[in-house]
Amino acid sequence: MSKADNTQKKVKLTKAEKKVNKRGKGPYSAQETIPYQRMWPDGVCLTDDHHYTKTVRFQDVNYQLAQNEDKTAIFEGWCDFLNYFDPSISVQFSFLNLAIGMESFEQSVFIPPQGDDFDSIREEYAMMLGE
């Protein structure tokens, strides 16, 4: 075996990683799991000297059922967003698509009676949704 085979490359640990290793146990929170240098109030996170992260939550858009004009507007908006980034910027997108149960969905669109003049409209709306 050569000397190069016996030596392992030393890896420099971040402060958060040293903190976890010093305790001898795993991390207690997400903040301890994901080492970062700085977090701004708008959610932008500096992870190291050259990388930032940002998480964005958005609602589902039913693209297939949209009118052609709406599809065009959605597609052009997405293209504008992608073209915003300069070629020198490294960008990575991760999408988490969660299925929602029917009961949860029904609760999100159900409008209970309020005891006012609009209850008949609420009832008609509920009938249209199949309740």
Question: Your description of this structure?
Answer:
This protein is mostly helical. It is 39% helix and 7% strand. It is built from six helices and three strands. It has helices spanning 3-6, 15-23, 30-33, 68-83, 102-109, 119-128; strands at 38-39, 45-48, 51-53. It has a three-stranded antiparallel sheet with strand order 1-2-3, with no helix packed on it. Strand 1 and strand 2 form a beta hairpin. The longest helix is centred in the middle third of the chain and has 16 residues, at 68-83. The radius of gyration is 25 Å and the shape is flat. Mean pLDDT is 77; it is low at 1-7.
What's the quick description here?
The protein is mainly alpha-helical and 131 residues long. Helix content is 39%, strand content 7%.
Give the SSE map.
Layout lengths: L2 H4 L8 H9 L6 H4 L4 E2 L5 E4 L2 E3 L14 H16 L18 H8 L9 H10 L3
Antiparallel strand pairs: 1-2, 2-3
Features:
single chain; mainly alpha; three-stranded antiparallel β-sheet; 3 strands; flat; disordered N terminus
Distance between the termini: 74 Å
**Beta fraction:** 5-15%
| Helix and strand composition category | mainly alpha
How much is the radius of gyration in Å?
25 Å
